[in-house]
Fold this protein.
Amino acid sequence: MKNRRSVLLGAAATGAAASTLPAPAIAQGRRRLKLVTTWPKNLPGLGTAAENVAKWIKQASEGDLDIKVYAAGELVGAFDAFDAVSGGAADMYHGAEYYWQGKSQAFNFFAAVPFGLTASEMNSWIYWGGGQELWDELSAQFNIKAFMCGNSGVQMGGWFNKKVTDVEDFSGLKIRMPGLGGEVMRRMGASVVALPGGEIYTSLQQGVIDATEWVGPWNDLVFGFYKIAKYYYWPGFHEPGTSLSLGINLDVWNSLTKSQQTIIQMATAAQNDFTLAEFNANNGSALATLVNKHDVQLRRFTNEALAKIGNLSGEVVREAGESDGISRKIYESFISSRKDSIRWSRISDEAYWEARRLPFEYG
Ligand code: CA
């Protein structure tokens, strides 16, 4: 204890910010790290996941890893979080990897792709199917090490002020949709914009866009979209289980002790489950509030529209996988894991859900 205390005092006495010191000098003792997020302040589920994982890491490290969390715009803009961490202006980000698709299309696979993997299937691929190793290889090109750190579960199709029944109805639609789902909408004839969460409401309210997806009932209720949009479409084909991520500057990561690295790895894995459970625990009641209290009209995308969207999704995801060498490796691994998941889920999850909906008495 005495030794550790003197190390801390020694570091403090230099008067320099920890992040400006060379790595070996700060490998021991207290670190103050900056975590920038892509989320509005205190946003339930997404924003609170970042706050909570920072708290867990601090507590588990007995205060040695002291992480300050910045909402989007507080230190850098939502979409600048990646560059900030890559370049060292911040130490960590919490966001969704599809926001970085301008760097490489391959990043989409580590958040969500249309008609891709569910949360449980993402875990299979990343933890056990070679996904993490490929992600490490991709992120290292940008001086970053990233982990899954939360999952939204299946999202909703979004809020629409125009009905989309036939395939043709998507033509001319002005919609906010991130990632490859946005590209699919573009091929359906829609005009697609990328907006961070904090800018969506005003755009929809002012008619700059006709439709937007965000997350699901719980988050969408908080944003109040029911006040300005008529129809709430399902299912969210574009984000069947969006993985959130914690990215760390690779130099910072490499300067941590093995124990500190393990704490981060364990905390992010725990947060991954914790957030998914939080979404699933809150979405059902939020949906009931939207429908019963706010008279939201739920509408399911037609099978005709979904089949067309499915075909375009396959095309768009394949093209993303052909964009460069590492994208190809990632695409092939992803598709192989998706095939395995479909083979098993057909007679496990899917079969069970179908069976549970049979008209028998229970509870
Ligand atoms: Ca979304």
